[in-house]
């Protein structure tokens, strides 16, 4: 199989996945169009990708020396700050993040929002973080932005 055929198969499968998300109202038509590059010719997209890759390859050797030293400094700075957050602060942060996400999704005219999607986008992995997300969902329900459906973990936008 040639490289062009493999690329076309990848593009077709990606487009089919996005079409499925569009049909299930998980993404909007504008997001679908943007993600599939419907209005952009394949040759232009390929040329643009190659130009970006070349530009990045030229800029990479110059940028590699400095970020490594900065990254080491950043790692040392970030870790103590994360350790200082107590359980209440973590819960409140996830609560606020989930309320902001739900508000954003409502403004995008989404019909349904799943709890798993909120967990994924907010980055809630631990039970404590998921609890904060649930409180954010509770607040959004109280403010009548969303309401429960008959399917557990799925909310309808009001």
Q: Outline of this structure?
A:
The chain is extended, with a radius of gyration of 21 Å. Helix content is 74%, strand content 6%. The longest helix is centred in the middle third of the chain and has 43 residues.
Question: Can you walk through the features of this model?
Answer:
Helix content is 74%, strand content 6%. It is mainly alpha-helical. The protein folds into two domains: 3-84, no CATH class; 87-157, Arc Repressor Mutant, subunit A (Orthogonal Bundle). Strands 1-3-2 form a three-stranded antiparallel sheet. Strand 2 (146-148) and strand 3 (154-157) form a beta hairpin. It is extended, with a radius of gyration of 21 Å. Residues 69-80 have low confidence and may be disordered.
Helix content: over 70%
Q: How does the helix and strand content classify structurally?
A: mainly alpha
State the separation between the terminal residues, measured CA to CA: 49 Å
Beta-strand fraction estimate: 5-15%
The number of helices is: 6
Whole-number tally of structural domains: 2
Give the integer mean of the pLDDT values: 75
Largest sheet: 3 strands, antiparallel
The count of strands amounts to 3
Give the SSE string: HHHHEHHEE
Instruction: Give the overall shape, derived from the CA principal axes.
Output: extended
As laid out across the biggest beta sheet, the strand order is 1-3-2
- Whole-angstrom Rg: 21 Å
- Sequence stretches where pLDDT stays below 50 over 5 or more residues: 69-80
Protein topology:
Elements: H1 3-23, H2 29-36, H3 42-84, H4 87-107, E1 112-114, H5 115-122, H6 127-142, E2 146-148, E3 154-157
Helix pairs in contact: 1-2, 4-5, 4-6
């Amino acid at each position: 199989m040639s490289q062009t055929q493999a690329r076309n198969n990848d593009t077709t499968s990606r487009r089919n996945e996005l079409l499925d998300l569009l049909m299930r109202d998980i993404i909007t038509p504008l997001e679908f169009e943007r993600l599939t590059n419907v209005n952009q010719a394949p040759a232009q997209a390929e040329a643009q990708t190659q130009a970006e890759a070349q530009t990045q390859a030229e800029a990479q050797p110059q940028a590699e020396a400095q970020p490594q030293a900065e990254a080491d400094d950043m790692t040392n700075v970030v870790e103590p700050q994360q350790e200082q957050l107590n359980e209440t602060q973590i819960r409140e942060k996830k609560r606020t993040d989930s309320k902001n996400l739900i508000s954003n999704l409502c403004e995008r005219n989404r019909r349904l929002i799943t709890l798993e999607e909120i967990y994924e986008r907010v980055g809630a992995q631990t039970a404590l973080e998921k609890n904060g997300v649930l409180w954010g969902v509770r607040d959004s329900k109280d403010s009548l932005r969303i309401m429960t459906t008959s399917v557990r973990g799925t909310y309808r936008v009001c």
